[in-house]
Design brief:
Number of strands: 0
Helix content: over 70%
Order of helices and strands: HH
Number of domains: 1
Shape: rod-shaped
Amino acid sequence: MTPEMLEVVGPFLAGPAAAVLVMLMILMALYQITIKHAIPLMGSALDRHLQALDRLVDQNREDHMAMMNQMKDLERTITSHGVTRAS
């Protein structure tokens, strides 16, 4: 490369080309961080969230069954004492 060509190409290499190279390096680093850290972290957070929801549904089911059993016991108690439904 001759000195005259270097004078023509030099500013381009130091300006826009360097900016594009830096941008590509930053994008590659962000891609690597996303692939190696962010996606697995989101996956494990989603798994914990779904497990918490499963526990909540199971607890709700148990509470519902207990409430239904109590209501049946209350109805049996009321009907065994001769109280009937009012019309």
